[in-house]
Amino acid sequence: MFSFLQLLTALSAALLVSAVPAPSEKCCDTSAAVMNLPSNQTALVSPTTAPLYVALGVGVQNYSCSSTTLKYTSIGAVASLFDISCIDKTPAFANIQTTAFKLWDSVPASVTASLIGSKVAAPNLLGYHYFVVGPTGALVPKWDFTSTGKNAGNSSAYVIGAKVGDIASPTTPATNIDWLALNNASGSLASKIFRIDTVNGQPPTSCVAGSANISVKYTAKYYLY
Ligand SMILES: *[C@@H]1O[C@H](CO)[C@@H](O)[C@H](O)[C@H]1NC(C)=O
Ligand SMILES: *[C@@H]1O[C@H](CO)[C@@H](O)[C@H](O)[C@H]1NC(C)=O
Ligand SMILES: *[C@@H]1O[C@H](CO)[C@@H](O)[C@H](O)[C@H]1NC(C)=O
Ligand SMILES: *[C@@H]1O[C@H](CO)[C@@H](O)[C@H](O)[C@H]1NC(C)=O
Ligand SMILES: *[C@@H]1O[C@H](CO)[C@@H](O)[C@H](O)[C@H]1NC(C)=O
């Protein structure tokens, strides 16, 4: 029988051929990396310094059905963040979020996000993005690099963000979650975080009271400054 793992291996072999560039001398150098932001907006302002990290996020956005509005409301997200600074001069970079999403969307729930990054030219796990309960009791977004890669064991390598800018996805906003700018609220990993180039993640437009919580798969690029 053709097992799921064989399928994934075949699929990823095909992806690897088309998506993985040869390592270049500029590998993992973020000094010339620039965010590609839409010109017709002012809510997201690119810093003038180079990013510290350029990451591909692969994960889920979680939602709960509000029984009063019959709309889904956000209850956080979980994503694995992979280093894509090594491939930012290659043709694969521009659409890596789409390449990753197609694979992520095609695998069953038993396949973790961690595996996806390694299949799309981004084998290095930088860390995780998830939500924690903040000082006011509300959920706040955290980027946590304390347990992985070169920051493993460094308890300072995290940042909690506070949103300062938000635009609808320039492509398919009904499907793709917003692009965001956040400032550092605590932690010393970065002072600014951007979520751009989002693919999917939006919930259905309405829900039936009493519906179960849902997780909607998404990918995005994250730039940390
Ligand atoms: C989101 O849902 C996933 C399961 O799909 C779960 O593992 C995770 O803990 C949830 N996270 C939050 C913040 O709700
Ligand atoms: C900016 O341009 C994109 C298309 O390039 C369009 O979809 C979007 O609505 C525009 N946004 C604003 C705020 O004008
Ligand atoms: C730990 O991480 C913080 C935030 O990224 C960084 O400023 C600090 O230099 C790191 N410490 C070590 C020992 O690498
Ligand atoms: C982030 O904010 C905390 C709390 O205000 C501060 O101690 C830290 O220095 C900031 N780090 C960066 C990198 O901006
Ligand atoms: C849905 O998520 C909310 C917020 O995290 C939680 O309070 C609630 O118990 C969850 N509902 C179900 C049915 O799991």
From TrEMBL:
UniProt keyword annotation of Signal present: yes
Signal peptide: 1-19
Highest rank taxon of the organism: Eukaryota
UniProt xrefs under Pfam families: DUF3455
Keyword annotations: Signal
InterPro entries: DUF3455 (IPR021851)
Record-given protein name: Malate dehydrogenase
